[in-house]
Design a protein that fits this description.
- By secondary structure, this protein is of the alpha+beta class.
- The protein has two helices and ten strands; from the N terminus they run αββββββββββα.
- The protein has an eight-stranded antiparallel β-barrel with strand order 1-3-4-6-7-8-9-10.
- Helix 1 runs antiparallel to helix 2.
- The two termini are 21 Å apart.
Length: 195
Amino acid sequence: MTKLTQIFLLGSALAASAPLALASSISGSLGIAGTDSFTSTGITFTPTTGVVLTASGDLATFAGDTAKLESFSFNSSADGTTLFTIVNGSGPNKQTLTFDITGITAYGTNSTLGYPNEEVSGTGILADSTSGKAPFSPTDATFTLTTNSNGSTTFSLDGSSPAAAVTPEPSSLFLLGTGLVSAAGMMIRKRRILV
């Protein structure tokens, strides 16, 4: 086998073994309303369901759906809590959206409102699946939850995370690999002619 053939085969093998492109990140926002009771250290949803009032972007299909809400504390023990789960549709078209808290970034009262209230902000991972298949990759997202003394909760979520690094698709990697191998082969051939 010639060196050029060996180089071509090696480049092709490297390009073929490149990882497949990841699914795209989730973008959009949600607004969920529910009822709760709260203290300065945690929130308890009563009942444990809320309603998706607004939804945009990739999350638009969840508008009007019921959200299952999970009570949590305003400290590191909230990390890993599935804050909400929303199921849309059924059967083969069933779509499930979850948000797991990864950190609480701020919490406290807003003294300008004039009544007991609490505002909590944090980060988490937004995950979407359709009938066991993930059309989107898990996405970093932020949330803000505002509640007041009448037990009214307003929950907003922004899935528009910073742009992730773009993963080239396998065919682009293959073209790059074969181009590099061809260039190397041409250099070897040119060197042989000059010698």
